[in-house]
Specification:
mainly beta
């Protein structure tokens, strides 16, 4: 079992930046595929970015490509999401997710991931 806890959310103006962090506890994080999802009010939870167990392969939703960067520090059991050029439509609760696996491609479906954090609110004002 692994427990995930996000931090770093907050209120930011459009065009600003935030860095989200997710710390894993319970067992080593080095053999997990991990990702960030978000859920806006009235909408389904959607894939934002994912990273494989090695950190060498990443995947992004089209809506955040070029603006968000996912990374991980396996030694510290940390997952990051650096968000830049934020837009009001990025407003949502952001969740980190993980699963013990080595998929050929980074899964984008939320159904794939077994472990989830509680979420952190990101609000972008116009």
């Amino acid at each position: 079992q692994v427990q995930l806890r996000e931090s770093g959310g907050g209120l930011v103006q459009a065009g600003g930046s935030l860095r989200l962090s997710c710390v894993a506890s319970g067992r080593a994080f080095n053999n997990y595929v991990a990702g960030w999802f978000r859920q806006a009010p009235g909408k389904e939870r959607e894939f934002v970015a994912g990273i494989d167990w090695s950190g060498r392969s990443t995947s992004y939703a089209d809506s955040v490509k070029g603006r968000f960067t996912i990374s991980r520090d396996t030694a510290k059991n940390l997952l990051y999401l650096q968000m830049s050029s934020l837009k009001p439509e990025d407003t949502a609760v952001y969740y980190c997710a993980a699963d013990i696996d080595y998929p050929a491609t980074i899964p984008v479906s939320r159904r794939y991931y077994d472990y989830w954090g509680q979420g952190t609110q990101v609000t972008v004002s116009s």
